Amino acid sequence: MVLSGPRPSQALSARMFAELAKETADSPGITRASFGVGEAFAHSLAAAVAQELGLSVTTDIAGNQYMIWPGRDRDAPRVFIGSHMDSVRHGGNYDGAAGVVAGLAAVADLQAEGFTPAQDIVVMAIRAEELVWFPTPYCGSRMAFGLLDPSEYDAVKRSDTGRSLAEHMREEGCDPDALKAGARPLDPATIRHFIEVHIEQGVTLDMKGIPVGVVNGIRGNLRYRHARITGKYAHAGALAREYRHDAVLAGAEFVQVLEHKWDALTAQGDDFVATVGEFWTDPDMHGMTKVPGSVNFTMDLRSLSNDVLMRVDAYLRDMAREIGERRRVVIDIGDYTNAPPAVIDPALVTSFERAARRLAIPTLTLPSGAGHDCATFSWQGVSAGMVFIRNQNGSHNPDEAMEMPDFDKAVQVLSEALRDIG
Length: 422
Fold this sequence. Notes:
Keywords: Hydrolase, Metal-binding, Zinc. Zn(2+) 2 binds at residues 95, 130, 396. The strands form 3 sheets. An 8-stranded mixed β-sheet has the order 1-2-4-3-5-16-6-15, with helices on both faces. The protein is 37% helix and 21% strand. With 422 residues, the protein is of the alpha+beta class. The chain has 2 domains: 8-219 and 342-421, Aminopeptidase, CATH 3.40.630.10; 220-339, Alpha-Beta Plaits (2-Layer Sandwich), CATH 3.30.70. It is elongated, with a radius of gyration of 24 Å. The two termini are 14 Å apart. The protein has helices at residues 8-23, 37-52, 97-113, 139-144, 152-155, 165-171, 176-180, 204-208, 247-267, 306-327, 346-359, 373-379, 404-421; strands spanning 56-59, 65-69, 78-84, 121-126, 191-199, 212-218, 220-230, 234-235, 273-275, 279-280, 290-291, 294-303, 330-332, 337-339, 363-368, 383-389. Helix 3 (97-113) packs across helix 13 and helix 9 runs antiparallel to helix 10.
């Protein structure tokens, strides 16, 4: 039985978002620090709503919360629906939390229809996804699989307190020592699917006027944090062009080469984006009347293909040598860190697209440029899928403006797909 008229999910979602906005307000916007008061409130709210729905609630030693709706076969691999509930400082109310609320909302509607899942459905509230608090990615989901290096628990400090991850975890009743010793709360073999509903953090859906997105991959990245160009400082008026070792002009050409490579990759159908997020001269040495002798910069390269990323790396190193020799400077892009792309299960993409067609809800299939906890599950071999919700004004800012009718459409797509999954 598919419900007609108002559905339980609508009142449930409105109430949860209103309570989150009220209790974690930090003008402008909201703040839910990882392993802090705001995140703890969000988890307690989710648990209370889950218990109202008759779900059992458990918490693992990393602080991740599992809200379990029993299926017909309690021993079968389970379907997880989850996301994080922390936020950036002065962020919006929907980044992360929308995924947990969507999971509970879908359960509410399916229960009202009299649906019983074939296997357990687990709504998971994940700890500490936002990198701004602890500088290690996907902290909560990686801890769930025992993937965090033991040294990180004491070495990684929260940005606002300077205190370690382990200290903050203990305050929330978690057990970092067991995790350091090798405990692994989640076994990938027990998970049939992991589904994450999330606001789109770009503008594609909004610009195209489409309420729901179906994600077909999560871009991996190469990050260069310490790229440097070394030339020679000289008098701006006295030194002729042919004798200059100008680090800024070399850098400008190098960035232009990167953009031309981006154009070429796009023209041949390869997925790729690039950002030079920082580019600066030495404030102790630079001056308006000096030929610049050094430049530091960063690069963030992303693609659905790690092969594309590695080919771009090789190309940029060749171009660094060529430009450096011609302009009499040394361009050293340095080492990189590599987060590989995360595979999205094509079967889940098809399931979401089919569900939306049956409901006459317009969708767009697109990649996720931002990272998500879903990637951690994919890297562990779990069948993973994502649904995006149109979101105005971007993300990681207090002006996030997801519209509730769009959220409602995403919940409907999720519920319809869960009916198909069984």
